[in-house]
Amino acid sequence: APGAHNVCRLLTRRAHGFYARDAGVAHRKNLGLLRKILCQESTKFKNVWTTHSASPIAYERGRIYLDNYQCCISSIAQEPRILYQKPKCSKSEKIEDALLLECPLGEMLPSPSDYKSSLIVLTVQNWLLRLSADSGEILEKIYLAGSCCKFRYLSWDTPQEVMVVKSAQNKLPAAARQVSIQQSVLFYLAVFQVLPLSFIGMLEINKKIFGNSVTDVAVSNGILIVMYSVGLVRLYNFQAISEQFMEQPFDLGHEFNWNGQVGVVGKYPFGLPCNIKITDTPPLLFEASSLENAFQIGGYPWHYIITPNKKKHKGVFHICSLKDNALAKNGIQDMKCCSLEPDWIYFHPDMSGRIIHVGPNLIKVLKLKEVKNNTDQMEIAEDFTIVANRENSVNNAVTVTASGRVVKKRFNLLDDDPEQETFKIVDYEDELDLLSTVAVTQIGADGRAQLDFHCNEHGILLKSIPLLESWDVTYSHEVYFDKDLVLHIEQKPNRRFSCYVYQMVCDTAKDDE
């Protein structure tokens, strides 16, 4: 009987996804061990590699890309090594944007190469290429369109499932504008299912349908987002649009006869047909007005964050219910910062529904909870805060000299004054469940940055890593924390780029020597 009970219990756990020998369970245990090792006092991060470049440097999951993606370097090895180096490309082959594509789990794919990571790149001549992430070999090649539009941007609608290729905004030449020629099509969007790569459809954003003041457009999580110069943001159901206005579906590589043209879908010179023709304004899902079109949706139940559409409200954030637009209790968040760089706010990427609000010297992690005795209303409460180390404050209004003379300052320092520790970057490492922050202090020409790891649940400081290179607050910086790797990319004036790679090491006496 006890044995039968144990078998039933095991089968029940298995049905719910719990199985001790499952690869996912082993992977989670390994990540738990890695987190414990990383946070030990004896564990250090060592600068193992540095490089400089005259072109932008990009990083994607253990791979560093140089020379407009022509050179790929693996950062996983003990010392970064070149995976491939392609010949320098001409201006006509320049890559405009790229996305890393990883193999989906549990699906049968048509080609063995589909089971390995690949890089989707968009070239200046409207070619969409799928490259092997390990060799740079071209696996697939799709021609998007002729000179009618210039595709420039890649993004995910659904990460690793549906990809969107967006054109630059169509603008008429000055000569055409002078003779009052009208340009009605503002943007083109081409949408693809990935692995296997398949064409869903292409549509145009036309001012006759969406209005004259459209400034930008995006597709995310099945929603078509249209932004306007007046701060208006409108949301539409993209799937409903594609179903209602799809004139004809097309498959890549198949012959087609479209508007008098005969060709092959995705091949030069025809490219892709614009087969989603929006002839009437689609049903509106939601509309909001926000300063600089800043609009975010998240939380549970669904809420959105906006800034009231007036310049005097810059830095003030309203958190409202998506259901009825009701402002949450304590839903106005204002740090009242006096700083050159504004504070910023966003929904936590850990899918907990929490909100992260970052100011120069304070990080607030907020949560949504029901108002007591009123289940219909939500309130914003602090989960935890992280405060910058400003013990040695230099903002004293009155100082006394050695001779006893009292000196009064005629100005107060800004909240993000470089001489005070200031938060510059906040990120989340999902595999280790750690919140990472970069805090910078700059005295004179010498700036020092520190990367801190905090418990994502409670905000407790677990580990601090000093970055050895000087940090100039006037430069552009990116910091990536990827399990046992820290990577810092810096952009200096005159298009000079630097990359610093740190790897986790055990701090033994031998290493110190």
UniProtKB/TrEMBL annotation:
Residue spans making up a coiled coil are none
Q: Which InterPro entries match?
A: DCAF17
Which biological process annotations from GO are given for this protein? Answer: protein ubiquitination
Q: Which residues form the signal peptide?
A: none
A Pfam family recorded for this sequence: DCAF17
User: What GO cellular-component annotations does this UniProt entry give?
Assistant: Cul4-RING E3 ubiquitin ligase complex
**Official protein name in the record:** DDB1-and CUL4-associated factor 17
Q: Specify the species.
A: Aptenodytes forsteri (Emperor penguin)
